[in-house]
Amino acid sequence: MSRPQCAFLAFLLLLPALACGQQSPAEPKDPVLSLRPPPKPASAATIVTPAGRIKLDVLVSDATGKPVFGLEPQDFKVLDDNQPRKILSFRSFDGITVRPDPPVEVILLLDTVNTELDQVAIARDQIVKFLRKNGGHLAQPISIMLLTGTGLRIQPRPSRDGNALVKVLNQVKPSIHIITSAMGDDGRIERFQLSVRALALIAGNEGKRSGRKILLWIGSGWPLLSTDELVYSARNHLLNFDSIISLSTKLREARIALYSMGGGPEFFYQPFLKAVMLETQAHPPNLALPVLAVESGGRSVALGNAAEMASQLDECIAAASAFYTLSFDPPLAKHANEYHDLRVQIDQPGITARTNTGYYNQP
Q: How many Å apart are CA 160 and CA 77, to the nearest integer?
């Protein structure tokens, strides 16, 4: 691959996401796939200023993976670059008796760009199975998104009616991939660009809405584009570093926990989970779907048997409905894009906490 191609790759990651449709059509009887209109501005009376500049949604589980309820602020310790930070605000939600307002929104994204047609059909059947549980009565509001070679289609509003959402999925018809394996490296780069820009568009749009979101990206994920395949210059590293910072920040500020449903075994992406602190460390694999999922406080789910996807979806959503929200103020940054490692510890044996793994601090 030539240097101009590498620069083109990095440059596209920085292009601003297009605003979702400027005109709002009359509300349909059932949800349909279209560009989601921008939200109405919040009135002054409904705007809530967080106590701390950094807000974290924290999932706490025991050794068996079950959510842990009833913890108090004193049970938590926030470590920012191994330094304790004062918790300025704290909320606890068990998903049953205490629920967040607005409720956690679940986004099911079916990726047809990076997934073979037979696997897309299986995934769609599993999503339908999940949506029809309990007679189609959903515990959480759910939105459907579809990524194709022509772009991203988004359901205008979330719904708790699983049967109506099945009608949305029925719009997804098998089609020949526009970006094929015959295109070689150019096709891999195009799929990478399309996928990452779609995620940036989602994060930017959801950042305008309050509340926590769970984004379940269903598919094998975009190509890693390993460093060995690319010729890099200092300019390329800089552009990719900016892209990593931008997407990481957007996901955190939008309160999106990303789940890679079918991202493959951990050893494929494990080397790229290391924090990107310098421009020279920035490579396309640092923007891989499983990497971003883990860094956002979500996780990567390797689906050995696609027929079990419905139960995996149910498990991920159920676990994500019970969580804690806390905030703190970061220290003064010494320079722009100063990376900070984040960890939340619980002072009880056998309990783990999962949240964003870091953030980029600014002066």
A: 36
**pLDDT tens string 273-284:** 999 999 989 988
Encode pLDDT of 143-164 as tens digits: 999 998 888 998 888 999 999 9
Secondary structure (DSSP) of 71-135: --GGGEEEEETTEEE---EEEEE-SSSS--SSPPEEEEEEE-SSS-HHHHHHHHHHHHHHHTGGG
In degrees rounded to 5, what are phi and psi of residue 348? -145, 140
Q: How far apart are CA 40 and CA 36, in angstroms?
A: 12
Rounded to an integer, what distance in angstroms lies between the CA atom of residue 316 and that of residue 320? 6
Task: Specify the DSSP class assigned to residue 34.
Answer: B
73, 195 contact by CB (below 8 A): no
Domains of the chain from N-terminus onward: 55-94+332-361 (no CATH), 100-320 (3.40.50.410)
- Cα three-residue angle 105-264-317, rounded to 5 degrees: 20
